[in-house]
Amino acid sequence: MNPQPTAPPAPTTDDDALIRTLPHLHKRAQSELLPDVWAYIDSGAGSEITVNDNEDAFRTWRLLPRQLTGVTTVDTTANFLGLRLAAPVLTAPIGCDGLLHPDGQRGIVEAAAECGIAAVVSEASGLALEDVAAAATGPKLMQVHARGNVGEFLAMADRAHAAGYSALCVTIDCPVLGWRERLRRLSVTVDPQHFSGNHPDGRFAAELLGETGSAWTWRTLAEVAARLPLPLVVKGVLSAADATHALECGAQAVIVSNHGGRQLDSAPATLDQLPEVLEVIDGQIQVGIDGGFRTGTDVFKALALGADAVLLGRSVAMGLALAGRAGVAKVVELFLAELRRTMLLAGCARISDINADLLRRRP
Ligand SMILES: Cc1cc2nc3c(=O)[nH]c(=O)nc-3n(C[C@H](O)[C@H](O)[C@H](O)COP(=O)(O)O)c2cc1C
């Protein structure tokens, strides 16, 4: 007799069962999320050359440990922009959060606070920045796009200041949305309610989905920066030239980022561009990086190359989509646990012990 086909197990909401390891997170997300949601999170621009390069860049580097160092415990605490963090890690801004999970951006800031790290809150959230701030007991930065009317931009900055954000993170690599091949193929459309919490009048949605670029220049940013009530962080720097511009604008940090390969396809991998940016910045301000970070050893490699902090994008988005706030907390915990173990194995007691002597280029 043929056994009756058994029904597939009911989806679990236990985040431990959902997300055991970081590679497991990726597999679970791919197999369990709705195809639209998976495509929105995972896809990049065009042929996804940059998405793949971001991840591949980590393979260039190998870790050369120091043995018998007597390191028994590690201290991962770090300072970024004057914020004391449990580790030099932040959650990257993730727009359209309501599409991923009802916890949305609130879940991300709560999880970040629980883990002792900072969250960068997206302007393109389904929730107003004030509502997100009300849920955030930990440090938070507000992300805004370098576009649109300067008066409205400054009004957003004032709102962020009033709501208790520590800095304004200005995204400069999104003058128009990247050509998201997979989303177009699947005809994925995102309801504007998922990204209009800060701009209910619909103008931002129309602009974001439009076909024209941003009229902003570095001069616009410099003029705006002089009037900001908050420290400026510039996200989307990839070149020495733009790092110089960011310094001239008075930025207090830059984020080496290509938007996770979601904007200009064939932009170089962020890890490959980090040395060029660090050379110009020359310790004057702090340098964060994002793009392709999938393990704790990836974080270690970026720190060894000289980054001050790492932002987690897709991994956090997948954690949120799978299990809301608890899923994000689990993902961050896994990154921090892997970072701690990598430090123990490499013989680093503190973040400041992580340096380029521990790296070797793959032959
Ligand atoms: C689903 C999703 C939404 C994003 N939304 C924004 C956003 O609103 N603003 C922004 O500056 N970057 C946004 N990004 C880019 C991330 O902040 C970050 O730069 C990128 O995801 C890092 O690469 P990774 O995904 O490989 O970690 C988004 C990324 C993803 C995956």
Which whole number gives the mean pLDDT?
94
> What is the N-to-C succession of helices and strands?
HHHHEEEEHHEHEHEHHHEHEHEHEHE
Summarize the amount of helix as a percent range.
40-55%
CATH superfamily: Aldolase class I
Which shape, going by the Cα principal axes?
A: globular
CATH fold type: TIM Barrel
Structure description:
It is built from 15 helices and twelve strands. 41% of the residues lie in helices and 13% in strands. The protein has a single domain (76-343), classed as TIM Barrel (Alpha-Beta Barrel), CATH 3.20.20. Flavin mononucleotide is lined by residues 40-41, 54, 92-95, 122, 124, 143, 171, 235, 257, 259-260, 262, 290-293, 312-314, 317.
Reconstruct the topology from this structure.
Layout: H1 15-18, H2 22-32, H3 35-42, H4 49-56, E1 61-63, E2 78-80, E3 83-85, E4 89-91, H5 97-100, H6 104-115, E5 118-121, H7 129-135, E6 140-145, H8 150-162, E7 168-171, H9 181-185, H10 203-208, H11 218-225, E8 232-237, H12 240-248, E9 253-256, H13 270-281, E10 286-290, H14 296-305, E11 309-312, H15 314-346, E12 359-361
Parallel strand pairs: 4-5, 4-11, 5-6, 6-7, 7-8, 8-9, 9-10, 10-11
Antiparallel strand pairs: 1-12, 2-3
Helix pairs in contact: 2-15, 3-15, 6-7, 6-15, 12-13, 14-15
The structure holds flavin mononucleotide (FMN).
Residues 40-41, 54, 92-95, 122, 124, 143, 171, 235, 257, 259-260, 262, 290-293, 312-314, 317 line the site of flavin mononucleotide.
